[in-house]
Each structure stands twice: as structure tokens, then as C-alpha cells.
Amino acid sequence: MSAEELAALKAKGIKSVASPGDDPEAKVVKHSPVIALEGKKATVTLPHPQAEDHVIQNIWIEDAAGTVLASRTLAWTDATTSEFEVPEGTASVIAYAFCNLHGVYASPETTI
Ligand SMILES: [Fe+2]
């Protein structure tokens, strides 16, 4: 998916653990990506179950300026874990996940 398409998904609204809107806690936790850093490798995970009609379709990372650094499109048969290489010189990253039924959720900003 292009950076423009990902931006269009974000424009519909972004939720997070810190800003859950009217989501109950369990729902926002299920959808919010978590970043684990190991050197320049960012592993992004979230505990959302995958089903044919209810699926995390995209996981991606951006820098603090909103530049998409890497993205992945998922099938419902894929696990909701993605590994990304963080480009040299990146100071921090934010991960996003898009659920086809519930929209876009963000991780906290994570300093590299
Ligand atoms: Fe969902």
C-alpha cells in the first residue's frame, strides 16, 4: 500500500492506548501495535485475532515527521507480527495497524 493510501486510512481517525476515544480498554489493547527494538530491527506485534472477515490488513512504521519508513500488507492467514528495518539516522518510530472493521491504531512513539 502506498504512503498516500496509508495516510488516507489515518485521516479517518487514529486511536491508541493513550487516546482510545470511546473504545473499551480490551478493544484498544487488542488493536494497538507494540514496538520491540533490537538494534535497527523493529518488531511490531499486536494481539488481534485474524479471521477472513475481520483482519489486520496493514502494519507500518513512520518516523516522527510522518514519513512511512516501511509497511506490510497482511492476509487474514498471516500472523499480526512484522519485522522492519529502521533506516539509519531515524530518531524515533511510531507503528500503525489497520483493522478492516475498526480502523487505525498507533503505538506510542518509541525512541531508537
Ligand atoms: Fe478489529
TrEMBL record:
Occurrences of domain Desulfoferrodoxin ferrous iron-binding (ranges): 26-106
Gene3D superfamilies membership: SOR catalytic domain (2.60.40.730)
Pfam families named among the record's database cross-references: Desulfoferrodox
A molecular function GO annotation: oxidoreductase activity
Record-given protein name: Superoxide reductase
Lineage: Eukaryota, Haptista, Haptophyta, Prymnesiophyceae, Prymnesiales
